[in-house]
Amino acid sequence: MQLTLENLRERIPYHGALLGFFTLMTSAALIGANLVTLPAIEQAARDDLKVSLLQVLPEGLADNDLLADTLSVVDQGVSRTVYRGRKAGAFSAAVFDYSARGYAGEIKVLIGVDAAGTVMGVRVLKHAETPGLGDKIEVAKADWIRSFEKKSLENLSLPRWAVKKDGGEFDQFAGATITPRAVVKAVKEGLQFYAAHRAEISGEAK
Amino acid sequence: MSGQIQSFSKLFRDGLWDQNVVFAQLLAMCPTMAVTTSGTNGLGMGLATTAVLVVSNMLISAIRDFVSDQVRIPVFVVVIATLVTLVDMSLNAWLHELYKVLGLFIALIVVNCAILGRAEAFAFKNGVIASAVDGLAMGLGFTLALTTMGLVRELIGSGTLFAQASLLLGPAFSFLEVKVIPDYGGVLMMILPPGGFLVLGGLLAVKRLIDQRVAKPACPAPAAHCA
Amino acid sequence: MNSPISTALPSVAASPHAKEFSSVSTVMLKVMLALAPATLCGFWYFGWPAISLWLLTVASALAGEAACLVLMKKLVRPALLDGSALLTGWLLAMSLPPWAPWWIGVVGGLFATVVGKQAFGGLGCNLFNPAMVARVALLVSFPVVMTAWVGPSGQSASPGLVESLSITFGGSIPDAYTSATLLGQAKTELSRGVTLLQTFAQGLPVSFSGQRPGSMGETGIVLLAAGGLALLAMRIISWHIPLAMLLGIAIPALIGHAVNPARYLDAGAHLLSGAAVLGAFFIATDYVTSPSSRAGQLVFGAGCGFLTWVIRSYGGYPEGVAFAVLLMNALAPAIDRLCQPRIYGRDWRGNPIKLNKEK
After folding, report:
1. Minimum CA–CA partner of B224 in chain C
2. C252 and C196 in one domain?
3. How many helices (H) and strands (E) does chain C have?
């Protein structure tokens, strides 16, 4: 029998070889692309992180590279990364993330505090709240998230760290109480976490 | 040559209207429902899909002589998935700002059955150039459908048109962003999945109506049949 | 259902037939009569805003029906006058917050008949209960407005006609009037970690007079139940769906409350609040969207009740009757298939029963 492409294509070994060939080629292409793009992707992710870290700290509070000065703090069995800001070498600010359960899953917030533990800024990193109702916690949708700024555990008593419906300081949204309540809880617990580990984070405990 | 141009115009007619991926074939329902919450999202998803569709059609068409019928589907799947991953990686690395807007959609393109559908229905049987044109036409039709759906849902759901278009297309296109109804509370359901089904149903009815109107003069059947 | 067609046919001779004058419009009329006392009671409790909302909702439902009939080139008068669209709008109005703004009634009424009913082909063809389709669409679309409840005040303390018009057409309810429903309060307090025992330490705000915040279909429970019993007596509905639905809510509620009273409301609170009674007698019993066999109706009713309890206890929304009815509507054709009555002379599988001599 003549060996043409037509009748070769019908043979089972050819099928196997063909699939093998394509898998090999596509894998090679993916490995190659991964090698080429990895440094650029990592750089981009670092830049993104840097931008979001700077959002929660006012300008001039820290002059170092926050990404280069991190510390892992173990709190209640969970390890958290804290980015430390320094001004002229002295500890001046800390940025860390904290989360709480919202209406539809976890809400993750990034909290920036100064050395004394006063909130400098809060931004929501991740949430799955109802669009149009619970998403007013995003800074792009509403200014609500800025109401945390300049607040601390010292200048606001613990019971006041709640939404107004629960007798606290912060507004709830019309029709959505659970979402702001979760964010308030996350920020409050974040500040408590910072207060508990302040010495460790600032490096004064040595 | 004129025959070829004619057939290309037929491909475009098919892709944009007669065989539109969403409005006629009812394929790719997953991205259609998931991302059409605004005109901008629909446009972004449509354009990203178009790019992948053109390249995948060309690739499949180029290898069609070597691939046996029996194993063509796994080969298509591997090729398309790789292609999408490559696009995802390179956008992430070199066009990061665009990636932040489109990143969510690109991973979704893998599950878009329109791409596998065109590979199977067209590219596997036609030449490279024709396949590229078919991919472009089908992709643009998909873009048209998604943008229309997105605009309708956005208008009723939040009272705006092309919100945040400048993020996708650059600041030059910020003129597209319109707030149609000021102080609009919004109809939440339109942004949620049920709104997608409602709007798709409505638009399908509109398309049928237009087709019927266009076909009417050429329909000599009894009037009762046409109505 | 006895369709008007049967009266139009020449007398069919075979078998014994019971003859009764019954058509769509007489059935609808009787249902409306049964619904009227509770509605009047709702008007009394909630005043002028409730009356104007009711009028708007019913008018919009009728307008939507008429517009669709015109578009589809069908006869408008007979379909419009059979009362089904009016009843749809009426039931929808009963389930809305009584002081909702005018556009809630208009959007809801239009949605009910246009999308919920006529898009499927009109009376008898709709898969889902149109009033509940509209209620769910409104709740999902406008969660803030649809959960703004007021307490019943009686005609004396309620706002005057002018103030009422500004509530319905101006948009906002004065803050002094707003309050939460029992189910809503239970859900909110549970979500912030307050147990039901603490929340309702003063006793549950439940009474048979229905003097508490809620929709018109939630207050005046006694009158609603009386209307339902009247429907039973007139043989418009059978006991299967209402009883199964009420038991479907009550039994899990009894068990849950016995196991953990801090987490689950008791059976009485479940039955007397929300749209449990309205749903059991007037909504789940809709001929078009419920199974036709008796066994199927029992399954259907029990499913509506159980899902209602599940959604109230675990779901994101405080009230679940509308969602439960819609979910079971979707299952109704399947239930009808599975609960077919045995054909005379055949076994349950439809095979002919073997005669003894063939053994």
Report:
1. C73
2. yes
3. 18, 2
Is residue A39 domain-shared with residue A102, that is, in the same domain?
no
Same-domain check for residues A83 and A21: no
- One domain, residues A175 and A126: yes
Domain final residue pick, C134, C149, C179: C179
How many domains does one find in chain B? 1
On the question of pLDDT at B211 being above 50, the answer is: yes
Q: List pLDDT tens digits, range C326-340.
A: 999 999 999 988 887
ipTM > 0.85 (yes/no): no
- Contact call for residues C242 and C49 (beta carbons, < 8 A): no
- Do C191 and C321 share a domain, yes or no? yes
Do the chains contact at B185 and C115, CB–CB below 8 Å? no
Flag whether A114 is in a domain. Answer: yes
Chain B CA closest to residue C73: B227
The answer to whether residues C146 and C99 belong to one domain is: yes
Interval C250-272 mean pLDDT: 89
Domain that holds residue C156: 21-179
Select the residue of C119, C140, C145 nearest B189 (Cβ to Cβ). Answer: C140
Indicate if C264 and C305 belong to the same structural domain.
Answer: yes
Q: Name which of B60-64, B134-138, B186-190, C136-140 the model is least confident about.
A: B186-190
Mean pLDDT of B111-134: 89
Highest mean pLDDT among A77-91, C38-52, C71-85, C299-313: C299-313
A67 to chain B, any CB pair closer than 8 A? The answer is no
CA C93 to each of CA A173, B199, C43, C144, C216: distance values in angstroms, whole numbers, following the listed order: 27, 25, 11, 17, 8
Cβ-Cβ contacts under 8 Å, A166 against chain C: 192
B186 chain-A contacts, CB cut-off 8 A:
132
User: Is residue C155 scored above 70 in pLDDT?
Assistant: no
pLDDT at C283 (0 to 100)? 93
**Distance in angstroms (rounded) separating the CA atoms of residues C142 and C155:** 28
Cβ separation B198–C73 shorter than 8 A? no
How many domains would you assign to chain C? 2
Chain B: residue whose CA lies nearest to C104: B187
Which 182-201 residues of chain B touch chain C by CB within 8 A? 185, 187-190, 192, 194, 198, 201
Q: Does B227 touch chain C (CB under 8 A)?
A: yes
Q: Evaluate the CA torsion angle A74, A75, A78, A82 in order and state its sign.
A: negative
Domain count, chain A: 2
- d(Cα A17, Cα A34) in Å, to the nearest integer? 25
When scoring B153, B188, B189 by the number of chain C Cβ atoms within 10 A, the one with the most, hence best to mutate, is B189
Measured CA to CA, the distance from residue B81 to residue B4 in angstroms comes to 31
Task: Verify that A49 and A108 share a domain, yes or no.
Answer: no
